[in-house]
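Trying the structure run again after the queue cleared.
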Amino acid sequence: MARWHRSGIAALLAATLLGAGLTAAAASAGTGIGTNGDGDFLDLTVAVSPPVASTAKVPQGVGLEISDFLGNRVNADSAVPMTSLDMFFRQGFTENGVLFPACTINTTTISRCPAASQIGSGSAETERLNPGGEVPTFGRASLRVYNGQPYLYGGSTLIFVFSRGGRGLAELDFAVHPQQGGLAINQILLPGAGPGTGITRFDVSIPDRQERLRVKGKTTTVHFFTAPTACTGGWTFGETTTSSGRRPLRASATQTCVTK
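Done. Tokens:
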């Protein structure tokens, strides 16, 4: 069960946002495509819902929809063995996962997380590498996203668990932390737990989640993700992916936003 191997198929997602289509509330999603000289491509779509900025006094809770697709546009069966995936929300987004129920990452096998820690769901495409250079076997999988206990940087984590028929197939783990005035989501590179099941693509929805909590002696509404207070027409999101023996892939997507 590979923790971090992903490779791709040939067709781009430019005309199909989030597989079956983004929700109406996220129709202003940003999409970006990056390529390199090896024929690889990275297709990134990010939608913030609602795409409305916070005010100085009232934080705006938001949900996220992310579509991520890595492949090779020349050879559909070309393996693209990903070694890292890092995303960056550039403007003032905040995340409060440390205040919500959380799961502990299992560093040696698929994590088993309590239902209370689930924050999102979606679907994915899996790839099973076959011996002798044979064409990989592709399939569909379900995806659940859990809020995770801190693992790096002191901040919370995101745990992506991919399964089929109730059986865990693969996992991607990310550390979430502030960086350069924005929010960085960096993959945590953990050893594989067995034969490699890769993830060629995932489409995930993380709805706005809020809790009434006591913070600094006051009861207040806390959102899992909050929007920036600034909006100058759009918010920019970036992703950098590296693969063994290949040149890095970078994609940038900008979603339109509005102020209250």
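Residues 24-256 form one domain. Worth checking whether this holds up in the mutant runs.
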